[in-house]
Amino acid sequence: MTTNGAHMDLEVGARRGGAGAGAGDTSVATANQEAEATNLRKDLLLAYKTLGVVFGGLVTSPLYVYPSMNLATPTLEDYLGIYSIMFWTLTLIGVVKYACIALNADDHGEGVLPSKKVYSEDEPLLYNQSATDRGPSKLGKFFERSITARRVLLFMAIMGMCMLIGDGILTPAISVLSAIDGLRGPFPSVSKSAEAMFADLGHFSKKAIQIAFLSSIYPSLVLTYAGQTAYLINNVNDFSDGFYKFVPGPVYWPMFVIATLASIVASQSLISATFSVIKQSVVLDYFPRVKVVHTSEHKEGEVYSPETNYILMILCVGVTLGFGGGKEIGNAFGVVVIMVMLITTILLTLVMDIKWRTAPVLVALYFIPFFIMEGCYVSAVFTKIPEGGWLPFAVSMILALIMFVWYYGRQRKTEYEMANKVTVERLRELLASPEVQRVPGLCFFYSNIQDGLTPVVGHYIKNMSSLHTVTIFVTLRYLLVAKVAQCDRIQIKSLGPNGVYSCTIQYGYADSLVGLEGGGDDDLAAQVTNCLRQHIQTAPSAEAELAQVDAARAAGKVHVRGKMRLYVGKDAGWFDRVMLGSYEFLHGICRSGLPALGTPLPRRVEIGMLCKVD
């Protein structure tokens, strides 16, 4: 009986255990289903938002595509041929190229042209060893060996980015005016703002953009163009006002109002893309620093730049007044759209071959048809350069010159900083000098060098012959996360010399650096000092160091920032004089490299230093 009872108990326990395991599996499955449902709702909401932000320009193109056709005596064959080109352009460029291929070439969720993978001159272009065991492709090896090839590619990417910014200037003008008088632009406007799918990727998700385009935008445009074509086949001479004559009379005025409002919204697609382009270029140090505001805690690429916004507004109004609307703006717009598409095709081909290691046959199947198609469009719009098409080239060259000046100046300054940086050994030698005095007080000395200290430190110690009894060298580190945990934000270590420490403040794109989420007077100093005290408590001489920190804090706090300026020597050539002089002008009018930390103004000190460049 005992044995049978034990056996029954084991069976009951097994059944209970199995039931518990099944319940656990069910709960996990339920949680996964809820998570999938939540993600689907988010994607659908984002897809709805993309209809205005990303595709606003694309859906307003029916307003002026047919009026842009220069048809003297149109026939049935003309309209069928035009619609055929529209259909295949939307299908191949919109669906295949952008929605299915280009959206996969993102950079941490962003899809603008100046990806750091394309821009890098020092790293193998787009090559990711972990993605394949076959080693770099022949094309990848060529770019690794040739710095000239990398610079040519860099120039191409910069021009594509500048063209995209020019698109952001022209889109508001052409979109709004086209709703009123049917602007006449070149033929590639049929796929206008398709490039915004890629550029606005940072504001939305890949799945959301694909859902919106494939389920709503693409079929709607195909049907709209088909309806216009069917109407014009029966009314062959109405092509100059094909959209509004295509609309039934009772809904004419409501459609006019909706078209005008939609055209206003359409401007947002390329404006948002411009914000993304500028933000990523500033992060990569290819563009003068401007204010960038992250408008979402969930999407790192969802940004707004007030300074860029106002500049776009001024340029857009200037272009509209200068050209007076009409044909010239349309010509300029067509040039910039197709040039961005062609550059995207070339860069995406390199991504497929070098990073994705796609089979050469598939790369050729992508590159050849798209290059031929867009090459034909480019050859067509080049005839419009004298008639307004010169504008995007002028804007792009000016922006590219600004970027090149900034990049060249930053490179020369970085070379100087790295060649003259203060190491820990050099700092120990400077402080060991009998001429250097340790003055009472707590000093926060800001440095932008991760390995070593900025040359301004040595300049300050040698000329002032002093350093505060407790000095903390602070470096800011930007991370590609929304928020950094409070326990990980401030990292402190001792540098060796008495009373000298290094502090790294890590922050994400949604973090506030003003007071480090505090609200008190000089809350930054309070939080860093508290972290310093926690660090010191583990040291052998903790009691003496804590007393030193308390005494220094009581004596007063000061925040020191170094400001290095380039001085061009007499032996420098004219190129360096022009480029570095222009860089100093840009550097003087742009924002500080260190974000505002909310430190009190009376406690801020700026130390200037001239860097001689021959």
TrEMBL record:
Ranges where the K+ potassium transporter integral membrane domain occurs: 47-192, 193-427
Descriptive protein name: Potassium transporter
Protein localization: Membrane
Transport as UniProt keyword: yes
Taxonomy, superkingdom: Eukaryota
Residues that span the membrane, as ranges: 46-67, 79-100, 152-180, 251-271, 332-351, 363-383, 389-408
Record keywords: Ion transport, Membrane, Potassium, Potassium transport, Transmembrane, Transmembrane helix, Transport
Gene: gb22470
GO CC aspect terms: membrane
Topology with respect to the bilayer: Multi-pass membrane protein
A Pfam family that the UniProt record links to this protein: K_trans
Domain K+ potassium transporter C-terminal stretches: 440-611
Any GO molecular function: potassium ion transmembrane transporter activity
Family affiliation: Belongs to the HAK/KUP transporter (TC 2.A.72.3) family.
